């Protein structure tokens, strides 16, 4: 069932930090089980409250009272996009990406892990192209990654 019609995209506030952190931790655990854990959950919660929400333009997808997605932009860089497990493949990621394209209409870039097949299929379905394959030396998890780019005239 598609639930995107009932989902609102809103700017995140400091009050959302704890719920965003639980979503982020659950989504990473579910979607990226292969990833080496380099931060404790407590460090991640602090990073969301003190860094993500203060230095990135952070948006949430809300369904009813619950936050079901989070997206963070830093200029043209789509820094984070995570949905709550159980909410995938209902068009909510697309709704959030549409927001990111509105906010950065000339270009978006992002990194994803090569083993994240779901995310790769999602970004490629939305017109992102591979710029560079990395061997993992560029991220703290040491996991091979991909730099993707979207431009409106190339998608
Ligand atoms: C990646 C993610 C944001 C995608 O959001 P989503 O709401 O599940 O995706 P959508 O429902 O909007 O999908 C849009 C299109 O992308 C493609 N797509 C999405 N998930 C796919 C999958 N698992 N397999 C193949 N194609 C997929 C399809 O073309 C889909 O259109 P369709 O459903 O009409 O066939 C979401 O699955 C997620 O949060 N995953 C876990 C966290 C993560 O890996 N984030 C990315 C970190 S870089």
UniProtKB/TrEMBL annotation:
Keyword check for Protein biosynthesis: no
Domain N-acetyltransferase stretches: 7-153
SUPFAM superfamilies tied to this protein: Acyl-CoA N-acyltransferases (Nat) (SSF55729)
Superkingdom of origin: Bacteria
Record keywords, A-Z: Acyltransferase, Transferase
Molecular-function annotations in GO: acyltransferase activity, transferring groups other than amino-acyl groups
Pfam short name (any one): Acetyltransf_7
Family matches, as InterPro entries: Acyl_CoA_acyltransferase, Bact_Acetyltransf, GNAT_dom
Name this protein carries in UniProt: N-acetyltransferase domain-containing protein
Organism: Bosea vaviloviae
Lineage: Bacteria, Pseudomonadati, Pseudomonadota, Alphaproteobacteria, Hyphomicrobiales
């Amino acid at each position: 069932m598609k639930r995107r019609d009932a989902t609102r995209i809103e700017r995140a506030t400091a009050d959302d930090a704890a719920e965003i952190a639980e979503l982020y931790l659950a989504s990473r655990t579910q979607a990226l089980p292969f990833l080496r854990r380099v931060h404790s959950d407590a460090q991640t919660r602090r990073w969301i409250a003190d860094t993500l929400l203060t230095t990135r333009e952070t948006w949430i997808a809300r369904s009813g009272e619950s936050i079901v997605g989070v997206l963070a932009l830093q200029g043209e860089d789509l820094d984070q996009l995570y949905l709550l497990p159980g909410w995938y493949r209902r068009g909510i990621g697309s709704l959030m990406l549409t927001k990111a394209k509105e906010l950065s209409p000339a270009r978006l870039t992002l990194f994803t892990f090569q083993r994240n097949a779901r995310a790769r299929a999602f970004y490629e379905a939305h017109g992102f192209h591979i710029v560079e394959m990395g061997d993992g030396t560029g991220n703290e998890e040491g996991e091979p990654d991909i730099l993707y780019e979207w431009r409106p005239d190339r998608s």
